[in-house]
Specification:
single chain, alpha/beta, Udp-n-acetylmuramoylalanyl-d-glutamate--2,6- Diaminopimelate Ligase, Chain: A, domain 1, UDP-N-acetylmuramoyl-L-alanine:D-glutamate ligase, Protein-Tyrosine Phosphatase, Chain A, 3 domains, nine-stranded mixed beta sheet, 15 helices, 33% helix, 21% strand
Length: 479
């Protein structure tokens, strides 16, 4: 973080200073357990806890001051009331991050949005650009009115490339994030049905995503997915330089001659303006080839050589949890934890990845509810179940009360009914909770099988994945 004094923090956020204005602030923390010496502790009032209750703990382990909406002990800045339902401290953090952004001179800020793939693309861009200069792309989905400011505030002083993810729940959200981050490069991964229940239509989602394109200055760069008609149409909204990427022949940056490896990753030729170099990514899924192409386009936009980009792709790692995270278990069982979130497009990509991997045994799609799909939710869930069956998934397992929407057979007392053919789904079942799902799956799984876990964030499927993995390790006598 750019060093600030507590007095400057007070001035920027328009608060009331209590304590020493000269106190040096070198970082910011929203978690008292991980506060570091020199940190400003942000006392946010959340749904379950009040950060003000942890100010003393944060100060004990190194924080030098706090930023609060209530009076507390120790040096602090008391912020003004909130103009809306957001916590006042979150508003203050946004103001502070805007100030820090103004101190960043001569850097590229890459903003990324899309209905799916944002975090994976952000992680890939960060890793590719790290070969060109000091890059800041924090792991995880820091993409809202708190996460994006924290991305800016946590950047090192000598950063050259800052990669910021931008999410939305409605019109105007991305515009507000752009006002803070002032992106110079914008990347749109796709337009899908995530949040359609809140926005109302796929056209509304496209309009919301396009706010990033409109925010890029004419001197900047816009990177668009050429394989998505709604995304490529956004090129008319900008005077910035446009780079397109995709598998289609018309894309500026594209992949040709895709070859699936024995492990579900891909080898391909990376092509740009007549140059063609061999490339590969050590990450599952054809959709991740597209994400890698987006990262390649950004690398080219900032002046990297295509050969250097291809080399960077070969050593990519999954930086953020629960996104195509592969665990090899005893008994030659593969678990794919893609449980961070789900929408129809990412669910389709995950199922296609599952069935593309060469398997000697059965394939299990362990699915939970997809949220925020509005009135079409039930129909979309049935479509996904039908897709899984069509793709050849051998066992479709829907878990949780809300997952009845998939329309699969099953009951609390007779989970074995998944072996019937009700509804046309052989070897498929709905189960009411994690315990019954764990019992059913552990009994069914054998050597060579592959398990995929996928659901919306609220379903906490990473817990189910961990639980089943532990039981499978015990089943084969290893912990």
């Amino acid at each position: 973080m750019f060093d600030l004094t507590l007095g400057k923090v007070c001035e920027v956020v328009g608060g009331k200073l209590v304590g020493n204005a000269a106190t040096q602030i070198t970082g910011i923390s929203i978690d008292s357990r991980t506060a570091k010496p020199g940190d400003l502790f942000a006392a946010i009032i959340g749904e379950r806890v009040d950060g003000h209750d942890f100010v003393d703990r944060a100060m004990e382990i190194g924080a030098v001051a706090s930023i609060t909406s209530k009076s507390v002990a120790g040096d602090h800045v008391l912020v003004p009331e909130s103009p809306d339902s957001l916590d006042p401290v979150i508003h203050a953090i946004a103001k502070l991050s805007s100030h820090v952004r103004s101190l960043m001179q001569g850097i590229e800020v890459i903003g990324i949005t899309g209905s799916s793939g944002k975090t994976s693309t952000k992680d890939m861009i960060g890793q590719v650009l790290s070969h060109a200069g000091v890059t800041h792309a924090p792991a995880g989905s820091l993409n809202n009115e708190l996460g994006l400011p924290l991305t800016l505030l946590s950047a090192p002083q000598h950063v050259k490339y800052l990669v910021a993810e931008m999410g939305m729940r409605g019109l105007g959200h991305i515009s507000r994030l752009c006002d803070i981050a002032q992106p110079t490069i914008g990347v749109i991964t796709n337009v899908g049905r995530a949040h359609i229940g809140e926005v109302g239509s796929i056209e509304g989602i496209a309009k919301a995503k396009s706010e990033l394109v409109s925010a890029i200055p004419a001197t900047g760069v816009v990177v668009l997915n050429a394989d998505d008609d709604r995304v490529i149409a956004m090129r008319t909204l900008t005077k910035a330089t446009v780079f397109t990427y995709g598998l289609s022949q018309g894309a500026d940056v594209r992949a040709e001659n895709l070859q699936l490896s024995a492990y579900g990753s891909y080898n391909f030729d990376l092509v740009y303006r007549g140059d063609k170099v061999p490339a590969s990514i050590p990450i599952l899924g054809e959709h991740n080839v597209l994400n890698a192409l987006a990262a390649s386009a950004v690398g080219l936009a900032i002046g990297m050589e295509i050969q250097d980009i291809a080399r960077a792709l070969t050593i990519l790692k999954q930086k953020s949890k629960w996104r195509m995270e592969v665990h090899q278990l005893p008994g030659n069982v593969t678990s794919i934890n893609d449980a961070y979130n789900a929408n129809p497009e990412s669910m389709k990509a995950a199922l296609e990845t599952l069935t593309a991997i060469p398997a000697t045994g059965k394939t299990f799609a362990i699915l939970g509810k997809m949220h925020e799909l509005g009135e079409a939710s039930d129909a979309i869930h049935v479509q996904i179940a039908n897709l899984a069956s069509k793709l050849g998934v051998t066992h479709i397992v829907a878990v949780g009360a809300a997952a009845k929407s998939y329309g699969l057979p099953g009951s609390v007392s007779h989970p074995e009914s998944g072996n019937d053919t009700a509804g046309g789904f052989q070897n498929s079942v709905w189960l009411p909770d994690f315990d019954s799902a764990c019992d059913y799956i552990v009994k069914q799984v054998n050597s060579g099988d592959i398990l995929l876990f996928k659901a919306s964030r609220a379903e906490k499927f990473e817990v189910l994945a961990d639980q089943i993995e532990d039981f499978l390790r015990a089943k084969w006598g290893q912990q």
